[in-house]
User: What shape does this take?
Amino acid sequence: MSYKNIRSIREDNDVTQRQVAELLNVSQNTYSQYETGKIEWTASTLIKLADYFDVSVDYLLDRTKNKGCNK
Assistant: This one.
């Protein structure tokens, strides 16, 4: 399953796949496979992304349109 909000928020913030891959300590190719749904996201990876972009995990997973994070 591909998560369009993850790619969209990355692009909206002018962040490259390589930059996110470095944040997650994975290769750019691995990150690309996450983004296209070839590799399943882990909970810890999603939490890191949500914290980095200051959005909720539910938003990243397309479970809500509300970007808000309940910190």
Remarks:
- Residues 35 and 61 are 11 Å apart (CA to CA).
